[in-house]
Design a protein that fits this description.
- This protein has 101 residues and is of the alpha+beta class.
- Helix content is 13%, strand content 27%.
- Strands 2-1-4-3 form a four-stranded antiparallel sheet.
- The chain starts with 8 loop residues before the first strand and ends in a 32-residue tail after the last strand.
């Protein structure tokens, strides 16, 4: 399993102009797919979130973007003792008698 702050890269992308506007093409090597599957197995999840990031130094004809696995997970707050806020009390039905509709 990856360290908490270790970045996991998988895939590349580039913006391609078309007659219908710009498209983002994303490419994966089989090693990238294997990296994603391993991450999912190691973290016992059926989903993976990827972040598309733009490269700082672009080279003409090469991918301009890269993909990184989003490894963020919520903290386990099962032991917090917060109670939900109280629900407001509804007004008595008589208070609605003077409404114009």
């Amino acid at each position: 399993m990856a360290e908490e702050n270790e970045k996991i890269y998988c895939g590349t992308g580039k913006i391609v102009p078309t007659q219908y506007g710009e498209l983002t093409k994303v490419s994966f090597h089989k090693d990238h797919i294997n990296t994603m599957v391993k991450y999912m197995k190691d973290n016992d999840t059926e989903w993976i979130n990827l972040v598309v990031k733009e490269k700082r130094d672009k080279v003409e004809g090469k991918p301009t973007h890269y993909l990184e696995v989003d490894t963020w997970k919520p903290k386990d707050d099962t032991n917090n003792n917060t109670t939900p806020p109280p629900t407001p009390k509804s007004a008595p039905v008589d208070d609605y008698d003077d409404l114009p509709f």
